[in-house]
Specification:
Chain A: It comes from Enterovirga rhinocerotis. Chain A: Belongs to the bacterial solute-binding protein 3 family. Chain A: Pfam families: SBP_bac_3 (PF00497). The complex is a heterodimer of chains A (342) and B (217). Chain A is an alpha/beta fold and 342 residues long. Chain A folds into 2 domains: 191 residues, D-Maltodextrin-Binding Protein, domain 2 (3-Layer(aba) Sandwich); 99 residues, Periplasmic binding protein-like II (D-Maltodextrin-Binding Protein, domain 2, 3-Layer(aba) Sandwich). Helices cover 40% and strands 15% of the residues of chain A. In chain A, strands 10-9-11-8-12 form a 5-stranded mixed β-sheet, with helices on both faces. A 3-stranded parallel β-sheet of chain A has the order 4-1-5. A two-stranded antiparallel sheet of chain A has the order 2-3. In chain A, strand 9, helix 6 and strand 10 form a beta-alpha-beta unit. Chain B is globular, with a radius of gyration of 16 Å. In chain B, 47% of the residues are buried. Chain B has a single domain, classed as Beta Barrel (L,D-transpeptidase catalytic domain-like). Chain B is built from 6 helices and 11 strands. Classes of the chains: A alpha/beta (342), B alpha/beta (217). Chains A and B meet through helix 9 of A and strand 1 and strand 4 of B.
Chain lengths: 342, 217
């Protein structure tokens, strides 16, 4: 009788544990996504290089590739994404209201957005920052040589106080030329009303292409503000948060390990333990995320490693030609550093 | 060093190219450091199919003016001292490290698949409008190349050359500026003539040159 009692208790405890975990899992975003059969990804309403619809009506860009990598990790199929274009004002509400599973829309990771809005940023996909586009008339090589320049800056943005701070800190003066939009700034540069335009660097590379003579403008290496952009998720589902975070890390680790479009099929045959764990041959990490063992390889198969994704959408293979800069691996002069998969 | 790809093209599929190179005992000891790998079909497609054009004229003024391969100052964190040259083979960029987390970046043409290498060398010699004496291993692969060509605007070595250690490799100019950003050479690093002329006075003999290659799985 007593033996039965202990067994019964044990069975009850196991049952409760199973029920408990099952209960948690059923409320999880991953299970909802799997049930729905597609990932709902919040993107911008159209930003060249990051997320925009091409001529065929298909979404393309750096932020879009993050969605595709996630879909590939979950479904082995990067096309299983439904894109939800969102304006800057509605993006976080849409995420909180569960209209989307993940927001991959050039959003800056800030304190307020995590602490006040109850969101979590899964990592930094792109380190952006305020920079300077300068006409080549003066052979300027650093922002510290911009003293006395006429600088176009968009009114009502955080770039304006940043600009003032930077010049004050470096004891330089400048003439402010207020513009209402990036297009207005391009016009002013073409007409010679200002020598320099300041905005986030990603925007400067896009706007440079709109100049009458893009070759006569250069974008200085200086970055005077921090604009870390990355995918955001709701804070109440750490399992999903981990999945998004580690998919992003996987893309960075893939570059460091040399796993790219050209080598992805050879990865499971590699003798290196790091590569074997990445490929899912060892370690069983896919299961821990609730995914198949080849999740990381599936993500790389879909979009390439981080470097390939960068160069294709916004880097040297795109019309923007943005240098890797901060977005280079830590070992190659940048700050991209992903924890190891072990 | 510049060379012709068409010879190798006859032996496609490309795996044969490497086998051929191996049979002929290709390249220098440094080239042997880099693991030989059969090029994937994708890598092959982006390889530019162009040979050397000895005699084709390119002047000192030719620089890459636009796009990512134009000479530009970029953000670059490095533990290397200012003045060091860092070459990223897979990115096709040459960085001249500057103080304050900066580097002057030049677009380069690099060795084609199987001819890429990594290592640490020093600039041992510099020359303006260098003569071109294709090394024996290149002549073996491409017997129709001239044995010697005097320096000048039609020389594939271009306007300037910086000799790397005791290897057969150089950082040099080119009479084919459109090959910048491509992987087509025999292991040398080529810059447009105007860009190599710009780099030349910034690089004294003895400069440390770090050649980096992407990880191999």
């Amino acid at each position: 009788m007593s033996v039965f009692g202990i067994r019964g208790l044990r069975a009850l405890a196991i049952g409760a544990a199973l029920f408990g975990s099952a209960g948690l899992a059923s409320a999880g975003t991953l299970d909802e996504v799997k049930k729905r059969g597609s990932l709902s990804c919040g993107v911008s309403q159209g930003l060249s290089g990051f997320s925009e619809k091409d001529a065929k009506g298909e979404w393309r860009g750096f932020d879009v590739d993050v969605c595709r990598a996630l879909a590939a990790a979950i479904f082995k199929d990067p096309s299983k994404v439904s894109y939800v274009p969102l304006s800057p004002t509605e993006r976080f509400e849409a995420l909180k209201a569960k209209k989307i599973d993940v927001l991959s829309r050039n959003s800056t990771w800030t304190f307020e957005r995590e602490a006040e809005l109850g969101l979590l940023f899964a990592g930094i996909a792109y380190h952006d920052g305020q920079g300077f586009l300068a006409m080549r008339k003066q052979p300027t090589t650093t922002a510290l040589e911009l003293g006395g320049a006429a600088i176009c800056v968009q009114d009502g943005t955080s770039t304006r106080p940043n600009l003032a701070d930077f010049f004050k800190t470096n004891s330089m003066t400048y003439r402010e030329v207020l513009v209402t939009s990036p297009a207005d700034a391009v016009k002013a540069l073409n007409e010679g009303r200002c020598d320099v335009f300041t905005a986030d660097q990603s925007a400067l590379y896009a706007e440079r292409l709109n100049l009458a003579k893009p070759d006569e403008a250069t974008i200085l290496a200086d970055v005077i503000s921090k604009e870390p952009l990355g995918p955001a998720v709701r804070a109440d589902d750490t399992r999903w948060f981990n999945l998004v975070k580690w998919t992003l890390f996987a893309l960075v680790n893939a570059e460091e390990l040399g796993i790219g479009t050209a080598t992805v099929e050879d990865a499971p045959k590699s003798a290196k333990p790091d590569v074997r764990r990445f490929a899912g041959v060892e370690g069983g990490f896919g299961k821990q995320l609730g995914l198949g063992e080849s999740w990381a390889l599936d993500a790389v198969r879909a979009v390439g490693h981080y470097g390939e994704m960068f160069e294709r959408n916004i880097g040297s293979q795109s019309r923007f030609g943005i240098p890797r800069g901060l977005n280079q691996l830590w070992s190659n002069g940048g700050v991209l550093y992903a924890p190891p998969m072990k | 060093m510049p060379d012709v790809l068409s010879v190798i093209d006859r032996f496609r599929p490309a795996g044969a190219a490497l086998v051929l190179a191996a049979v002929l005992g290709f390249a220098s000891p440094l080239a042997a450091l880099s693991p030989t790998r059969v090029p994937s079909p994708k890598a092959e497609r982006i390889t530019m199919d162009v040979g050397d054009e000895p005699g084709r004229i390119s002047t000192e003024e030719v620089t890459i003016k636009s796009g990512p391969f134009a000479r530009q100052m970029v953000f670059f964190r490095s533990n290397e001292a200012p003045g060091t040259i860092v070459i990223h083979t897979s990115e096709k960029f040459l960085y001249l490290v500057m103080p304050n987390n900066r580097a002057l970046r030049y677009g380069i043409g690099v060795g084609r698949e199987g001819f890429q290498w990594s290592g640490l060398v020093k600039v041992t010699r510099k020359a303006e409008w260098p003569d071109w004496t294709p090394p024996p291993e290149m002549i073996t692969r491409q017997p129709y190349l001239p044995r010697f060509m005097a320096g000048g605007p039609g020389n594939p070595m271009g306007a300037r050359a910086m000799y790397l250690g005791s290897t057969v490799y150089r950082i040099h100019g080119t009479n084919q500026p459109e090959t910048i950003g491509q992987a087509i050479s025999s292991g040398c690093f080529r810059l447009a003539n105007g860009d190599v002329v710009d780099l030349y006075p910034r690089v004294p003999v003895g400069t440390k040159v770090v050649i980096r290659h992407a990880a191999q799985i």
